């Protein structure tokens, strides 16, 4: 058993090509910690988001701070603390901070592939 704490002060600026704008991440459960689960705290500063993408596995987003948007080509959800969003495997989507807001969510994924789309 291991106690893990989300701490925005421990997050590091992400240079991943999936992100647009100022984004910081904190790996809470990374490869090597658990065989079948990854948990990452992702903080999007005002105006930041990720590019549309798909995962080969289901993804759960748990909002812990601020206000954000999780969207597909057809649906746009406005989310806040306590909200959970299930993104089915293969669904094209993006997520990021609502205008004028900062937004943090936990991303829960099992091992798989991600495809960035324009």
Q: Give the overall shape, derived from the CA principal axes.
A: globular
User: In CATH, what is the homologous superfamily?
Assistant: Jelly Rolls
CATH topology: the name is Jelly Rolls
Work out the helicity level. Answer: under 10%
SSE pattern, N- to C-terminal: EEEEEEEEEEEEE
- Output the radius of gyration: 13 Å
How is the biggest beta sheet arranged? 6 strands, antiparallel
Task: Write out key terms for the chains shown.
single chain; mainly beta; Jelly Rolls; six-stranded antiparallel sheet; three-stranded antiparallel sheet; 0% helix
What does it look like?
The protein is an all-beta fold and 118 residues long. 0% of the residues lie in helices and 48% in strands. It contains no helices and 13 strands. It has a six-stranded antiparallel β-sheet, with no helix packed on it. Strands 9-8-11 form a three-stranded antiparallel β-sheet, with no helix packed on it. A two-stranded antiparallel sheet has the order 2-5. The chain starts with 11 loop residues before the first strand and ends with a strand.
């Amino acid at each position: 058993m291991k106690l893990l704490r989300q701490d925005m002060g421990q997050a590091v600026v992400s240079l991943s090509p999936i992100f647009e704008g100022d984004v910081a991440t904190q790996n809470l459960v990374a490869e090597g910690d658990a065989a079948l689960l990854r948990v990452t705290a992702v903080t999007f500063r005002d105006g930041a988001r990720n590019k549309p993408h798909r995962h080969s596995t289901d993804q759960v987003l748990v909002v812990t701070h601020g206000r954000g948007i999780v969207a597909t080509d057809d649906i746009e959800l406005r989310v806040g603390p306590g909200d959970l969003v299930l993104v089915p495997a293969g669904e094209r989507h993006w997520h990021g901070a609502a205008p004028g807001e900062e937004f943090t969510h936990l991303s829960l994924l099992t091992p798989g592939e991600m495809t960035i789309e324009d």
